[in-house]
Amino acid sequence: MSIFQTPAATAPERAYQWLRQQIAELPWDQEAFLSENSIAEAAQSSRTPVREALLRLEAEGLVRRIPHKGIYVPALTAADIEEIMEVRQVIGEWATCQVAQRRPETVNRLQQLLDEQRGCLDDAVKFIELDIAFHKTIVEAAGNATLAQVYDSQRIKQERVGIQAVLATAERYAAVLAEHEAMLQAIASGDAEQAQLAARRHIHSTRDAISARRAR
User: Fold this and answer.
1) Radius of gyration of the chain from Cα atoms?
2) pTM exceeds 0.85, yes or no
3) Are residues 150 and 86 in the same domain?
4) Helical H segments across the chain, by residue range
């Protein structure tokens, strides 16, 4: 089960979470066509909850309905990826700085997520789910619900990009862990300036990994 999925989810929610997971695992440079029947069969659901899930995904801009063809999942463009990284940088740096100034209980949660990440070096999908949870924890702890919502709206696109980024080079897993550790230590010490710098370095490193993946 995805760490974002709740055990008591309704049928439409389960279909929605299943579809989001499939989209997240699709390489960013690939597109796909889906049909309600094939989705319902694969997700072990009826068509009604699938239809509701697709409406939500369409509203979020993750899928499009193409007449006579089905449900279209577009590839991410260079502009899409740049938008994702800009959102991450602007909100991520600000949030990391804010959280470092407060030094809340968030530190314990971040340490837990980092420890879990260390145990997922053979699972890119789980590793990136934890990566996003790490950053989401920081953003939510910063206390601006509107920015947190904007940040979370990019999650699936972040997953598609992130999974491919860690697969770009064998060293990327270790780099992410080291960068998260630097952010965590700065937050724990209450050094807002160093925390913001660590967040910025992490984003720049991620950009480099994405560029390496796109060049392959």
Assistant:
1) 18
2) no
3) yes
4) 11-24, 36-42, 47-59, 78-102, 106-118, 124-141, 145-153, 155-166, 172-189, 192-214
